[in-house]
Amino acid sequence: MDVELNETQVLVQKTARDYATRVIAPQAAEIDEKECFPREILRGLAELGLMAINVPHELGGSGAGVVAAALALQEIARACASTAVMMSVANMVGEAIARFGTDAQRQEHCSRLASGEYAMGSFALSEPDAGSDPGGMRTTARRDGDHWVIDGAKQWITGGTYAGVYIVWARTSPPETGARGISCFLVPGGAKGLKVGRPEDKMGIRGSDTVPLEFDGCRVPESALLGQENGGFKIAMMALDGGRIGISSQAIGVARAALAESVAYAKDRHTFGVPIAQHQAIQWKLADMHTQIEAAQLLSMRAAWLKENGKPFAREASISKLFASEMAVRVCNEAVQIHGGYGYTREYAAERHLRDARVTMIYEGTSEIQRLVIARTVLG
Prior knowledge:
The chain is of the alpha+beta class and about 375 residues long. It is about 50% helix and about 15% strand. It folds into 3 domains: about 5-120, Butyryl-Coa Dehydrogenase, subunit A, domain 1; about 125-230, Butyryl-CoA Dehydrogenase, subunit A, domain 2; about 235-380, Butyryl-CoA Dehydrogenase, subunit A, domain 3 (Up-down Bundle), CATH 1.20.140. A 4-stranded antiparallel β-sheet has the order 2-3-7-6, with helices on one face. A 3-stranded mixed β-sheet has the order 1-4-5. Strands 8-9 form a two-stranded antiparallel sheet. The longest helix is centred in the middle third of the chain and has 37 residues, at about 230-270. The radius of gyration is 21 Å and the shape is globular.
């Protein structure tokens, strides 16, 4: 793996950092407190080419690659985790359509995601009773002439209220076929028969719109099928593998924010006549936080580099996601401790970072699922 960034990667990273610092960070606390969907911020990200980073130029994307996407997500997450997760999902949707879609599907959707014409693209895989086990999916799609009719429910859909297009997984073969009987469809926002539920009242990433979806006789044309019939599981797993790199990047960004604020607080806060940064107990906490972040960074970059270079990366993505998410929770917890009583109040951002970090151990595959994936490779 080449640890030196190329010119494009440095440019994307700097672009994301500048925008995050100038535009996003000053609004982050309000986005969290008021649960604001940051529409204008996402439009600004699109104008900078950050909503379809790994989508080819000819489809409207930046074509900058997986490493650049991971670096950009870190910078956005450092400012606002809510914005970062929506950016991550939108990038994942655009990349999946670019890779598995027909020419017509690519032309219709990729440029709209990249340009911000679509406020969001959403990934509708999880269900109320089928999260880590997609083989238990109950949503169905049946043929009716030259259309498909979708019925069922989806859960935990990021950006679902505002999506211009949804990638929806549904069962197209009998339940006994398990994951081998699942297909994938592109459903436009506002489609008849699609109902968007009430946003979830979440612990963290409160500015990230998260909703349930209901499909009641939702008709889409035959051309809405993404990939092959009964080939949806492969698309889901390949998208999730890449998505795990995105979530590890989000976790790293949140942890970096928590560390930076802890350092600033430690230099400013005095006890026993000196800044607490001079106390060995605080120094060791900061050193451990920094070390863990740097380790997560290398794991994330390794997974991103492997994917970008067309090499197997599923195991490395799981390792990265597992380590980075659990690291972020530890680091943010220490940040609250360093801030003392103030860390438990909304006057400081430490408590928000801890709330935002916690979900990274859950979505895109829980820590338990990542351990199963990794263990299988260890056991052969």
